[in-house]
Specification:
- This protein is mostly beta strands and 177 residues long.
- The chain has one domain: Porin.
- The chain contains two helices and eight strands.
- Strand 2 and strand 3 form a beta hairpin.
- The protein is globular.
């Protein structure tokens, strides 16, 4: 009887410490990218769109649901082709999670639509914060590290600026390669 009692105590101890729990879950097969940002540029303290040493033309931070704060960097590509009153654009967008440095990047293509006219855009930016613009892009993310390792997918990146306000959203899904 004491042998059975000893076995029961061992089983209870194993279950209490979680050793008998199910096998740990593997890395996520998909990650949802759902985030937004909104910033106000203040002229006296504005030194540029990206921190020194970052090879990009636009940068910022974005709050990603379930992933936390991420830094984003948009390096413009060579394409700026007229498309009506707008322009076809390209480039590369990189995301870096602030929590652990996980990164993912990919080529971007989209449509950039500046304010009222080319002349207004060129001259207005010199004397003000710049004329309004809207840009809608598609990013083909690949080659991630950390939490993004082995994932790829497509996301939409929408940005809008008017005066000192600059806002944007990122929405998409990354899945296993």
């Amino acid at each position: 009887m004491s042998a059975i009692r000893g076995v029961l105590i061992i089983i209870a101890a194993v279950l209490a410490t979680g050793i008998g729990a199910a096998a740990p879950a593997g890395a996520s097969a998909s990650v949802t990218l759902n985030g937004s940002f909104s910033t106000v540029v203040t002229k006296p303290s504005f030194t540029g769109p990206c921190p020194p040493g970052v090879a990009a033309n636009e940068c910022g931070t974005i709050q990603l649901t379930g992933l936390g704060t991420a830094d984003w960097a948009y390096a413009f590509g060579p394409t700026l082709d007229p498309n009506g009153r707008c322009y076809n654009v390209d480039g590369t967008l990189t995301l870096t999670l602030q929590s652990d440095g996980s990164t993912i990047s990919g080529p971007l293509t989209g449509l950039y639509c500046p304010g009222p006219s080319a002349t207004g855009h060129e001259h207005g930016g010199v004397i003000s914060y710049g004329n309004p613009f809207v840009e809608d892009d598609i990013i083909e993310f690949t080659g991630g590290t950390g939490q993004f390792a082995g994932l790829s997918g497509t996301a939409g990146f929408h940005t809008f600026s008017a005066g000192a306000r600059f806002t944007g959203t990122l929405k998409g899904t990354l899945g296993s390669n």
